[in-house]
Design goal:
The chain folds into three domains: 45 residues, Roll (SH3 type barrels); 61 residues, Beta Barrel (OB fold (Dihydrolipoamide Acetyltransferase, E2P)), CATH 2.40.50; 57 residues, Nucleic acid-binding proteins (OB fold (Dihydrolipoamide Acetyltransferase, E2P), Beta Barrel), CATH 2.40.50. The strands form three sheets. Strands 1-6-2-3-4-5 form a six-stranded antiparallel β-sheet, with no helix packed on it. The chain has 187 residues and is mostly beta strands. It is built from no helices and 16 strands.
Length: 187
């Protein structure tokens, strides 16, 4: 059993009959009164985010997790199918368990977080960035380059990304999976 002093980013805890992952935390020691930890927790089962404050020394139930690399195979109307790279077993995840899934393409390697006790999947993490081909892009307006002008582009996974005016269909770009922003053009 851990205490609120052990809270860190990425820690999975059992709270309110659900499993939550700590996505933000802040240890606060006010001048008057006891210390506390302000957290932002994300449910690994349904994706809901909630804010919670733990008093100093508060006991929390830590959930032991393991991570494994899986290869994304395909999706259907309910979720996504993955293959374990070690033993080739397949795993299914609901659509709500993966954030920014519109940037996944077949063959991409994804890290899946599993509960250590019974190896039930909790969530999946995409790489920090992915390389995608631009399928369609709005035409750039000539003379509109005085500022950092952006235009819409559709990448091979079907996701919309705002890109600079010089990006054309057929270009390969690097996209952040965290916020879906354009990072750079890849040669």
């Amino acid at each position: 059993m851990a205490t609120s002093n052990d809270i860190r980013k990425g820690l999975c805890i059992e709270f309110s009959n659900d499993i939550f992952k700590v996505i933000e935390f802040l240890h606060v020691k006010p001048g008057k009164g006891p210390a506390f930890v302000r957290t932002k927790l994300k449910s690994v089962t349904n994706g809901k985010v909630l804010d919670n404050t733990f008093s100093a020394g508060h006991k929390i139930d830590e959930v032991k997790v393991i991570t494994r690399k899986f290869q994304y195979l395909y999706d259907d109307e309910n979720g996504f199918h993955f293959m374990n790279n070690d033993d080739f077993s397949q795993l299914y995840l609901d659509k709500e368990m993966i954030e920014n899934s519109q940037f996944m393409k077949a063959g991409e390697e994804v890290t899946i977080i599993l509960k250590e006790a019974d190896e039930t999947p909790l969530s999946a993490e995409l790489p920090q960035s992915v390389f995608l081909d631009v399928i369609e892009a709005d035409p750039g307006v000539k003379g509109n380059t005085a500022t950092n002008a952006l235009k819409n582009a559709i990448v091979e996974t079907g996701a919309r990304v705002m890109v600079p005016l010089f990006i054309e269909p057929g270009d390969r770009i690097k996209v952040s999976t965290e916020d879906g922003s354009y990072l750079e053009r890849v040669k």
